[in-house]
Design a protein that fits this description.
This protein has about 325 residues and is of the alpha+beta class. It has two domains: about 5-175; about 190-300, Rieske Iron-sulfur Protein (3-layer Sandwich), CATH 2.102.10.10. The protein has helices at about 5-10, 20-30, 35-40, 50-55, 55-75, 80-115, 120-145, 150-175, 190, and strands at about 200, 210-215, 220-225, 230-235, 250, 255-260, 265-270, 275, 285-290, 295-300. The strands form two sheets. The chain has a six-stranded antiparallel sheet. Strands 5-6-7-8 form a four-stranded antiparallel sheet. The structure holds FE2/S2 (inorganic) cluster. FE2/S2 (inorganic) cluster binds near residues 239, 241, 263 and 278.
Amino acid sequence: MSTPLVKLLDAPVALTWLDPVAAKIADAWRAALPRSVKDALHGVWLGHSLHAVLVLVPVGTWASAVVLDGIATAHQLAGGDEDVRRGVDDASGALVATGLVGAVPAAMAGLTDYADQHPEQKRVTLVHASANLAGIALFAASLVQRGRGRVGSARALALVAMAANSAGAALGSHLTYRWASQANHTQHVPHVTPSGWYPVARHDDLAEGSPVQVRVGETGVVLVRRGERVFALADVCSHLSGPLSGGEVVVEKGRDCIVCPWHQSTFALETGSVVHGPALSPQPVFDVRVVDGGVQVRLRELPGVASPPPVEGAVDDAA
Ligand code: FES
């Protein structure tokens, strides 16, 4: 059962009338940026969401500014030294300005993630962004008032701005934790894939460069033949669970890769590493061997992650 808080945070999901404008914004942003810039803004180079890192600047500086505003107000009410009060207010203004500058790259990274979301995620993101834009406008107004020496209204505006940004932050975290945006959609694979080797195909039946889906237990695995070699990755895309077996095999940066059909995340077949986003997490890799013309696969273990024991159909390690 949903709590009142969750119902409130989920409310934007029902705003389907946002879809046409949401799609237009996403298409325009996607078309405006070269792929290298999109990869950089997703955080492919970092292996982590860049938006999640960059938002720390505005969130941290604005929260600190509001705290300083409280200190300045208390100091003023207590009849404290005016120079000290002015110094605290100046520091608060500097923090607000720093947050406004930091909000620009954070918003760009967020918009880039948004462009490759599911429609229901886009609706939540639009409301999240609207709350944050309201907060940005209010902090900017607060800074203007500070410049005019109207510290009372500057502090009040900053407080309201912080409330707007807090609502935006709540929706942003809900988007990740409830709606799994930018989460790793293959995290479960080692926990549900039985350990051991499994025969899954005949080598001669695999056509060059044509992805094929097979199964190990309940786990979908995509097989790709390149010459005499066969590669195997988890079929479910780490970005948003698209089927890699429906994708295209390409050579990218000198590596054999597979492209997800949903949002074109590109993974190296040999290592599962992300070559192009929006995915940030690598694909789980299966070891492959060919025994008497039969292709066998085994999930490559991650350090410290235990898989379930072998199930029916497993073959001997030395087979
Ligand atoms: S599901 Fe989005 S790129 Fe694969």
